[in-house]
Amino acid sequence: MEQQTNNLSGDKQYAFKNVLLETGFEYDGQEIIKTQTGLFCIEIENGKIKTITPNDLNKNAIDAEGRLMLPAFKDMHAHLDKMLYGLPWQAVSEKRKTVKDMIAYEQQMIPEWLKTSVVRTEKLIDMLQSYGTHYIRSHFNIDPTSGFESLKHLEIALQYKERTVGTELVAFPQHGIFYTDTAPLLKEVVKMNIDFIGGVDPFSIDGSIEKPMELITQLAVDNNKGIDIHLHETSESGVKTIEYLIDKAMENPQNLKGRTFVSHAFVLGHLPLSKTESIAERLAEAGVGIVSSVPFRDTVMPIPLLRKHGVEVLVGNDNIQDHWSTFGSGNMLQKAHLIAELYGYTTEWELSRTLGLATRQILPLDDKGNQQWPKVGDEANLVFIESSCSAEAVARISPVRSLVHKGNIVY
Fold it and tell me: pTM, whole model, 2 decimals?
């Protein structure tokens, strides 16, 4: 398949045949025991799906060889600007135990990392694409050490990749806003071509919840940006920070509802059930989402509870073999697998639903088994996988064989 597609990635119109699509669920009484599938031809034109027709072996088309076609994956929390990927192997050091330890280390290392960051970012994107990811929300450092260089280097790398990957960018004051005098830089970067403004642990880094959060939310409202805050704090300050954001989203629904997120929000995994339920209800009402890298050390995030209450839960890899974490494969299908294993999703139906956490809830079948993707007119963001169905792909972390982004065949 790869040899046939290499010369077609720029074509405005082409087709696939022998494409395996999910068509419904098979029941034994009330139990879903299998996912039904069929073979089809898919025609692509100008980056969108033009036709979906019964399979025709004689059609002049790229042969998908019976591979399962699924929605391409979305990594909703990455740091493309400062991974160690592309540098010699380095495990996490036991000397750096706190966020402030990491800040000091980054202040030392960022000038060196920036020397090769463009090339390494491209390589990292290649790696994510090899696992079927076509869209990435990437944070980039904005701090006195980086200045605007992390953003500039990231933009250069993304220009090289603009036909094959979609992105949204978050200005991330990793070193605190007032702890390192980053506020002036934030006020400038928010006027640039970015999508979100971020922050990190306002109480433990900046010594106040209100002062940094007021600046962040006001900059977002004034400049029509979303918000995505890193919050690792598990104490009362973590709760108060989340409640502050909820209140601000409720006060500014036109600007912030559906565009405000808390990344990590570890405190939600350390509260009594009744308190977590209460916060989840308010998060849903305010349209504030949670972005999780699915931690599994001493914190099990209440993802099922959040989703039950209608909170949007996004998932990303976060640290991909960097100075914060030795692990992190970059594989969103592996993340879905981890979620299924962590929360005991073992049935055909549960596994098929879990795929949605890798695709931002784009699924071939709805909860009742009605086919809802792909549809004519959908953007052609596709992966071809060695699997019989979504449930098997999640359970077995099935190999991804091909990726298409907006009709461009990536590989």
Answer: 0.94
* pLDDT tens digits, one per residue of 153-193: 999 999 999 999 999 999 999 999 999 999 999 999 999 99
User: 47 falls in which pLDDT band (50, 70, 90)?
Assistant: very high
Shortest CA distance to 139 belongs to which of 196, 189, 185?
A: 196
Beta bridge partners of 172: 141
- Terminal CA-CA length for the chain: 9
Asked if 297 and 333 touch (Cβ cutoff 8 Å), the reply is no
CB 177 within 8 A of CB 186: yes
CATH ID of 2-66+363-409, from 3.20.20.140, 2.30.40.10, 3.40.630.30, 2.60.40.1180: 2.30.40.10
Helix/strand/coil (H, E, C) string of 296-331?
CCCCCCCHHHHHHCCCCEEECCECCCCCCCCCCCCC
Cis peptide before 374 (omega within 30 of 0): yes
**CATH 2.30.40.10 intervals, the chain:** 2-66+363-409
* Residue 230: strand, helix, or coil: strand
Q: What whole-number distance in Å separates Cα of residue 185 and Cα of residue 189?
A: 6
Q: Which CATH superfamily is domain 74-330 in?
A: Metal-dependent hydrolases (3.20.20.140)
Gyration radius of the chain over CA positions? 22
129 Ramachandran zone, left/alpha/beta (phi>0; psi -120 to 50): alpha
